[in-house]
Amino acid sequence: MAGYNCYADHGATELPDLSGVSTLADCKATCLRTPECEAVTMAKHGATVCYRRYAVDIAECSTDSPYNTYMLIRSPSPPGPPAPPPLRPMSPAQKVANRLNERFRHARPEAASGGKPLGAGVVMHQFDNFEARDKQWAPCDNSPQYPCNGGSFSGRISTFLIFRGMHARRDRVAIPLISMGGGVVVDPNIKLKCAYGDDGSTYKAPGGCYQQWCDAHNPFRGGHPCGFGGANQIDHAWHSYDLSAMLRLYNEHSQHYKRPQFYSGYNELVYDASIWNRNLPSTVEAFFGLFSHNGFNSHGPTARQHQAFLRQYGITEAECPLLNFDPENWDYPFSAPGEQAPHSAHDTNHDTPAAAQLPPCPQWCSTWHCDGAEWCSDGTLPAPCKNCQL
User: What is the Cα Rg of the chain in Å?
Assistant: First the structure.
């Protein structure tokens, strides 16, 4: 279909794209080898990336686009077993999951501007018991509506930013998290207060932000990147307007990945409680749990917080769903519980370009040692997973 661009929430559901496939003929051939593939989309001119699609509704696709979509008409199969039942309509929760996956996959850290992380990735807060009492979706401010727990930090809340480009660090066998617990996804249009390249030990900083700012034009202090270093090593914060400068340093200088815990390779973004709470319920796009690992429990703490949130603001699950988050899926980490997300490119078949394949590794390596150093300068690992420390 000339001039049609079909993608998530615009007439199609995405399969992993193939950046190493450069011709239309090769793109069509990969679609033929993928049973669920119904169409391919490629740019008319310029960069040629093969985008495979299924569940295509051409009437919902974007028109007058610099892309063309080619529908596959498969030859009738010889008589055989009955065909599987048709795919059920996409749920509202899965539509939200697809939107977040798109944001995660196509994030550009340098897109952050105006003190907001819009375009830079997906912002998440994992429940840490420092939130408002009985309302873990909100920071406490000691008001009657948002009272603090005994150990809470009044007036702010900490989050972190995830994006697929984090996987350029080969020690990150999964998306860095603080814990294996649930949390909320944050609207990227909410303005930040400050940021850090590692856990900022922000309990020591008034309002979560140190009074000294990192300099985006001179980001190294004493030979070390400002705002990095982890536990008790940080005394400067990155201003929200310099978030993109911090993210340009993040992949190279953040701490090594470990299984989800404190100081495990994530970044820290701090929000002001007044801005966060003033924008509720819109501040929260979705709730999430690690149900792929922990199992789904409709009466568990994350599900209870989600239901309390819906009751508090009189909204529906379609407006703010509870999603599954799989930190090992670097292409489609979000999905609706009970609905299987497309496989990650690292799980797929021979269609995946060799350059995208990772060596087989344990799921939770804490770090690798390459020739006596903690990081390989060329970004590769000794095969396979040499000296992986669990």
Answer: 22
The SS3 assignment for 59 reads helix
Q: Give the tokens for residue 341.
A: 């997300």
Cβ distance 237 to 214 under 8 Å?
yes
- Strand partners of residue 73: none
The pLDDT confidence band at residue 226, using thresholds 50, 70 and 90, is: very high
User: How many C-beta neighbours within 10 Å does residue 377 have?
Assistant: 8
- Over the stretch 275-314, which tens digit does the pLDDT of each residue have? 999 999 999 999 999 998 989 998 999 999 999 999 999 9
Looking up tokens 């009272």 gives 147
Q: How many Cα atoms are found within 13 Å in the side-chain-facing hemisphere of 88? A: 6
**Residue 36: is its pLDDT beyond 60?**
yes
Q: Between residues 349 and 361, which one has the greater pLDDT?
A: 361
SS3 state of residue 372: coil
Q: 325 is written with which tokens?
A: 């988050």
Structure tokens at 264: 């495990």
Q: DSSP of 145-173, one letter per residue?
A: SSPBPTT--TTEEEEEEE-GGGGGSTT-S
Query: If you count them, how many residues does the chain have?
Result: 390
Contact status, residue 245 vs residue 218, Cβ threshold 8 Å: no
pLDDT exceeds 80 at position 380: no
* Four-residue CA torsion sign, 182, 273, 162, 258: negative
At 20, phi and psi to the nearest 5?
A: -85, 0
Looking at residue 177, the DSSP 8-state letter turns out to be -
**pLDDT tens string 112-125:** 999 999 999 999 99
> In the chain, which residue ranges form alpha helices assigned H by DSSP?
24-32, 92-105, 243-253, 273-278, 291-294, 301-313
Q: Which residues pair with 67 in a beta bridge?
A: 43
Query: Could you give the CA distance from residue 257 to residue 375 in angstroms, rounded to a whole number?
Result: 11
